[in-house]
Predict the 3D structure of the following.
Amino acid sequence: MQTQNLGYPRIGGQRQLKKACEQYWAGNIDLSDLQKTAFKIRQENWQTQLQAGLDLIPCNDFSFYDQTLDMSLMLGAIPKRYSAVLTEVKSNNETDLYFAMARGYQKNGLDVTAMEMTKWFDTNYHYIVPEFTADQEFKLFSEKVFGEFVAAKAVVGDKAKPVLIGPVSYLLLGKEKEEGFDRTDLIKKLLPVYVQILQRLQQLGANWVQLDEPFLALDLSEKEKATFTHAYQYLKKEVYGLKLMVATYFEGLLDNTLLALNLPVAALHIDLVRAPGQLEDVLAEIPQNLILSLGVVDGRNIWKNDFENSLSFISKALEKLGAERLIIAPSCSLLHTPIDLDAETGIDPEIRNWMAFAKQKLDEVVTLKKIASGDTSLLNPNGEAIKSRRTSNKVHSKKVQDRLAALNVADVERKADFKTRQKIQKKRLNLPAFPTTTIGSFPQTDDIRQLRAKLKKGELSPEAYDKAIQNATIEIIRWQEAVGLDVLVHGEFERNDMVEYFGEQLAGFLFTKNGWVQSYGSRCVKPPVIYGDISRTNDMTVRWSQFAASQTDKWMKGMLTGPVTILQWSFVRDDQERSLTTNQIALAIRDEVLALEKAGISIIQIDEAAIREGLPLRKAKRADYLQWAVEAFRITAGGVANETQIHTHMCYSEFNDIIEHIAAMDADVITIETSRSQMELLQAFAHFKYPNEIGPGVYDIHSPRVPSAKEMADLLEKAAALLPAEHLWVNPDCGLKTRKWPETKAALENMVAAARQARAHIMI
Ligand code: GLN
Ligand code: ZN
């Protein structure tokens, strides 16, 4: 029996890589400094894994920015617009070209945009999308993988296992940048380069190469399936004697089981955390000689492995395959977990004993092998930790569970239908046509963040902090009044982050000091941990909303984060269904909604920024998810009076496949991101005849650019051609937190002017 790891976090225990990259981009350190930092992180990672006792240790899992971008550079899939950059940096090095592809390039008269970035499957990690053209060619360009393999070999010897994204998943991760071809057809041109890379790795002494093919666990077309078969038959023919391991994760093989099992490779890795049920199918059909890697330790979460449960899988496989054909592994790359629990000294020790970060997960993998090989004495402490979590009253609250069980249909329904509510609200709120508002936050400048840092360090008293936040709030209220916005916001200056702010005030959450995970490039996030039944012990936003409302005669919107978004951006419990955790959060938010209403707040926005990204990878699971996600929103909003206007906000735009569920949320007003697509995205709403009010973003907040009033008025005209004008609101795409003041103010002044033009010109 062997053990392996599929990938290790590369940001460094103190986020050294982030800091070094940002220093390099700012021109404060030179390339050799950056490379030194990277070198050290890799060496440390290999040492850590060697010491843990793993048999196969990944290399080339390091990346300065993103592993998919590494692949594009290796395969020479460099979009043509970078050729000028290429010439300019050639004398220098490929790293600058690489960063130009990741971040764009504005230097020496060149102005080249970055490549697109999107979410890596259902994680919060973002990858750089490969761009393909009809005449796409591939050739070996970056030699990074060879260098890293040689370096790894020097540290871990024969255990070094280079990791690449497999050829089919690489193509599927990309995008056709022009019409008239299908990217899977590029496989013919791509495979010879893979052969060249694999042969070279073999010459350098590699025994194993891991090829990640996560798409094997997703819905595939017949053509895609055939592409997999073709690709691996080709590789088998051309590369002789090198052991290839195909890694799948994040879902089960299901209908692709036979396809995956019959690829002519040496080993297959499956994710038994996400899809435990697939083991039986795989064992039933597995061909002779294929080695199976069991992903039993969760690479996506921070909980200690339940050894007994993992061993039940291992022994089943052992019985059928024998020890020689078995590898024990984490479910996927550990990229998605924080690095080291030992660094977390502030967590309640009882709860900490239930957790494991990347480093601890390596030990779990190795311990599982030892137990499976007969050393059962290692079972005990684990069993006790698992039991303690299962029974702890820090986790389980009867009160929360009873309350959820008692919830009934009437609780999730608004009292009247939308049309009735709309009439009542229109009368009460008395807003002009095309009412203007913003999504919640105003620029969070360094001064505001400094205040929080000082408060934390004790350098600022809570009173002084409050006073400073109050002043910022008053100032932005006065400004909104002066500009003529119709529905005001308080600016969210008191909030660090839209999830953390709530998590910190809810029972059932904990926060780490150093639990960073890479989100994209040098950006890291520190997701809260949901460990127990969630309840709200106090008002969370009432004080600030009430304060803000008291400062103006205009309507002041209350601002909350929705349950699915809080769930999506946290490490969640693995001992109960996600839907159940979401409903607990929903009840807490519902209470906050009602408290706001009671405090006189008549318009309440519940942000559900992440509903779409929670969509399951397999289509067959989506309906169920959407059903409970929508239900959770309805729990939050279902208790208010007809007079109270509920808004929701979503910061993305592809609604085509989920529009009926968005409608089922039954928010009185929804604001969405539409400005970049020139209102094209409203088609889905128009086609569906979306019944409620809607604020299509007219101001792209992802750019410092100030749109003119005319530009935004034109967008409103487009929107009014698609949807009833009396349903339209006027607002930016999203919150303004990351923007600078001057551009924000100028853009919002123009936005109010655009609304005035619309009122004058568009018939209602
Ligand atoms: N209310 C939040 C804000 O304005 C919404 C942010 C978001 O949608 N990501 O910051
Ligand atoms: Zn948003």
The chain has two domains: 2-79+115-391, 428-445+483-505+554-761. The first strand starts at residue 2 and ends at 3. The mean pLDDT is 96.
